[in-house]
Design a protein that fits this description.
Blueprint (H helix, E strand, L loop, with lengths): L6 H11 L2 H16 L2 E2 L7 H5 L7 E5 L24 H14 L10 H4 L3 E5 L4 E2 L11 H15 L4 E5 H5 L11 E5 L4 H4 L9 H11 L8
Parallel strand pairs: 2-3, 2-5, 5-6
Antiparallel strand pairs: 1-4
């Protein structure tokens, strides 16, 4: 397998690449992809890093696992490939954006358009076995992605971190809230949204307000 992370991240993450845990993680991932059906496709595992370069990061959205259904995951959290039916959480995300900002509900659930504007769509675990949610958790991915969050916090200024749900909110400990904006909400999953913990959170409007105040271009959601 040929793992590639965009050169803009290489200098900052080289210490992680040299750690024993990362080598063990890569061995695990190679073995899984060689013997099982896994997602996303191997050339899209690091898509979050390859579509949103380090210097461009303005917003970080943290997910948990890639989608584990056939043809869904494309290496960006909450995102699916063009033409794929929108999963329930993504439907609720788009509904909230439509409500907050008046942006029409999109046909495509591919969030590459966000990544190209500086939104890092980072799953805590970057791979998963087909139809087995959580199957690649606690193998080292979380250590790598936690280090990524801390790196962004330490080396950048005025980044918005969107932490949705209990799992993502635990990542706040890696973020310097004195120089970054952390916005939280319930998870956009139906279970949380139907209990009133997602809708009307104004996270997208508040993100753009903060970016504008920091002299940055807002995101066209």
């Amino acid at each position: 397998m040929n793992f590639h992370i965009h050169e803009s991240w290489q200098t900052y993450l080289k210490n992680e690449f040299s750690q024993p845990y990362f080598s063990e993680l890569m061995d695990f991932v190679v073995a899984e992809y060689n013997t099982k059906t896994c997602f996303p496709p191997e050339n899209e595992i690091f898509n979050a890093f390859n579509t949103c370069h380090f210097d461009d990061v303005k917003v970080v959205i943290i997910g948990q696992d890639p989608y584990h259904g056939d043809g869904q995951a494309n290496g960006l959290c909450f995102s699916v490939k063009d033409g794929v039916a929108h999963p329930p959480s993504l439907i609720n995300i788009f509904k909230e954006i439509e409500s907050e900002l008046g942006v029409p509900y999109p046909k495509s659930g591919n969030l590459m358009r966000w990544a190209n504007q500086g939104v890092l769509l980072l799953n805590a675990t970057l791979t998963v076995r087909a139809n087995v949610a959580g199957s690649h958790q606690k193998k080292g991915w979380e250590k790598f992605t936690d280090a990524t969050i801390k790196l962004i916090s330490d080396d950048k200024d005025h980044v918005v971190f969107l932490l949705w749900g209990g799992f993502a909110k635990k990542k706040e400990k890696f973020i310097d809230t004195g120089k970054h904006k952390v916005l939280t909400s319930g998870h956009p999953s139906p279970l949380s949204a139907n209990r009133g913990y997602w809708f009307d959170n104004n996270n997208f409007k508040e993100t753009n307000k903060y970016l504008l105040n920091a002299g940055k271009r807002p995101i066209y959601w």
